[in-house]
Amino acid sequence: MKHVKCEICGSDNSNAVCSAKCPDGTSRENFIINKCEICGFVFVNPRPDKDEMRSFYFEEYYGKPSRIMKIVANSAISVFSFLRKRRIYKYKKSGKLLDIGCGDGVFLNYMRARDWKVFGVETSESGYKLCEQKKINVSKELNFQGESFDIITLWQSLEHMESPARVLREIHKVLSENGVLIISAPNINSMEYAIFKKFWFHLDLPRHLNHFSVATLKKLLQKSGFKVLKTEHCSFEYNPYGLMQTIMNTFTPEFNFFYKFAKRNKTQGKKFILNMAITLPSLIILAIPAFFISYVFSFFKRGGVVHLYAKKNS
Ligand SMILES: [Zn+2]
To answer: Hey, what domains does the chain have and what are their CATH numbers?
Structure first.
């Protein structure tokens, strides 16, 4: 474990605001998030070093869903990819796209089929291999010197980065003059976190090293040479399910049980039947209320995730 200073203002003056264990049971350690007393940025401190972090991105992290869930998962992926494409098309309808933290590459695959030239960065071994299988131009490092991208996206990945400021500096070098950077990240200023704290689906310690609010993300972007064009709070892709899973985390024996079952077809295995017996009726009861409540939260700019669009200052 190593101690870090605030990434945004460099201050060493931060205090613990919440603690939680890794939702996958990968470690028994209780991880702590601190809030910077100077700028309000929230981050994991102390945190595992680079080698220790690898164990939290295990082989099944981007696993395959079960056969039953595959139909649901594939439909969801198509809808979510379409919604991401719509966010991009507000600015550009063709060109070169770089997705940083591209995971298993499904979104890049979708955009490539729509004539975009696609590139990805993925540091996890499991995600990297899945991108290679799809023949996506993927790299483990953000080194595209000499390239110039029209759109650069980070869908729920900046919160994973050891140094988001360094990543933004690198992005600044490869984003074209009229290019647009789209960042989607969990919102620590959300009602979900305010109410549920350690049960929040998007807390995901220690993988989510950085916990942004709109204010701190804007500060970081401005410091890195970007101008924020727009902020959006509604997200059908992340908010309704995030709220539902957060609520279920307060009463199911296993944390993120349905998420792990649906996405990876791999749960911790203990009390599987009990977890499932609690989860299935909860999904039916919670689906519609969670949908509406998450939109009310978003309307008041307190939804589970935020999207920021930015371009270079110069
Ligand atoms: Zn700070």
So the answer is: 14-312 (3.40.50.150)
